[in-house]
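hey all, quick one before standup. I had two proteins in the batch that finished overnight and I want to keep them in one place so we stop losing track of which output belongs to which input. First protein below, input sequence then structure tokens straight from the run.
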Amino acid sequence: MNGLTLAYIGDAYYELQIRDHLLNKGYTHVKQLHSKAIKYTSSIAQANIVQMMIDNNILLEDEINAYKRGRNNSTSGRKNVDGETYAKATGFESIIGYLYLEKNNRLDLIVNISINYIEKGDLQ
């Protein structure tokens, strides 16, 4: 599949995992859930997560390939986000989509690393 198709399914899977995580933490009000979820799912958060994974050599070669395939090189970005950040975010979603479709056992690991990174407040 092409990278943007991987990003499409990866976005949906990651969003569902974040919603599940927040429900398990005891959040139940929809407005609160939405505002908390943005912390994990925004383009900026996803770009920071994938950059941390690259910098720390967490990603395997096939995951890096999925990342590269999924970077949307839109020059305008999206929703007040610059093009580079948006490209990294779609690349992150592509990794998630790739692992999901491959039924790869690293999927949960990558999602958990992402959640822990956000919760530790390591965003740059």
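OK second protein, same deal, sequence then tokens:
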Amino acid sequence: MQTQWLSSLKTDDPQAGYELAIKMARMGVKYTQPKDEVRQKLRPVYEQDANSLIASSQVIAINFQTVAMANNYWS
């Protein structure tokens, strides 16, 4: 288990919320594949695959939706 990195979903504005959504997606990959050398080996494969990139964007969008809801859509 890694040290705690997510203390809140609250952010100051939508830009910070989107950046948090990206961080959440990246941390999800790190939890799923904790070995840096394996992630580095796989990166050239998925960075050239449109379907993988679209899937990554979908994960970020879902995370952003969650963060936006937690922030009451910054209203």
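Flagging for whoever picks this up: The chain is about 70% helix and 0% strand. The chain has one domain: 14-74.
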